[in-house]
Amino acid sequence: MSQTPDVVMREWFEQLWNQGKEETIDRLLAPGGIAHGLGPQPIVGPEGFKPFFRQLRTAFPDFHVEIKQMVVQGDMVAVVCHVTGVHCGPGMGSPSNANVDFWGMTMGRIKDGQLVEGWNSYDFMTCYQQMGLLPSLSL
Fold first, then answer.
1. What share of the chain is helix, strand, coil (3-state, %, to 5)?
2. I want to staple 5 with a disulfide (CB 3.0 to 4.6 A). Which of 77, 106, 133, 137 is the partner?
3. SS3 of 49, please?
4. Domains in the chain, start-ordered, CATH in brackets?
5. Where are the strands (E) in the chain, listed by range?
6. Taking the CB of residue 127, how many other CB atoms lie within 10 A of it?
7. CA distance 28 to 47
8. Torsion angle defined by CA atoms of residues 93, 19, 105 and 48, in that order, rounded to the nearest 10 degrees
9. Residue among 91, 112, 99 nearest 8 (CA)
10. For the segment 54-108, what is each residue's pLDDT rounded down to a tens digit?
11. Residue 2's pLDDT is what?
């Protein structure tokens, strides 16, 4: 029996991002799975996703994603996430030792216990401002 969409998404965030277990990508991302919204082009498949994961985990060894809300409808699952970490490693510019604290959302389509497509919208502008890579905007 396949895992339900909510279980797959919880495992994705907990095991991959919070625990840093890269093997989670091979287990939970379908071979042709597509991740939208994490760069200028969609990321395709486990081998395409691993460099993104490695870069982020290297820059933020303590990267933590807390799921605040989850909604499941059929094979679709949407999550609201609170992201925290310290930029203390290379991978996204020189380490700034800055604390980052931002929010985002992911919607995923699950088939046979794996993510087959995901849409991501995270406040990376706030993250980059907190790291000193972008100026803060005054209103």
1. 30, 40, 30
2. 77
3. helix
4. 5-131 (3.10.450.50)
5. 29-36, 43-44, 64-73, 76-87, 98-111, 114-122
6. 21
7. 13
8. 60
9. 112
10. 999 999 999 999 999 999 999 999 999 999 999 999 888 899 999 999 999 999 9
11. 67
Q: State the burial class of residue 16 (Cβ atoms within 10 Å of its Cβ: 0-12, 13-18, 19+).
A: buried
Give residue-wise pLDDT tens across range 102-128.
999 999 999 999 999 999 999 999 999
Structure tokens at 70: 């989850």
pTM: 0.93
| Contact criterion met (CB below 8 Å) for 34 and 42 | yes
Smallest CA-to-CA distance from 100 within 73, 68, 78, 133 is with 133
What's the full length of the chain, in residues?
139
Query: Residue 98's closest CA among 131, 123, 122, 69?
Result: 131
Tokens standing for residue 32: 């042709």
Q: Name the one residue in this structure whose structure tokens are 């840093």.
A: 20
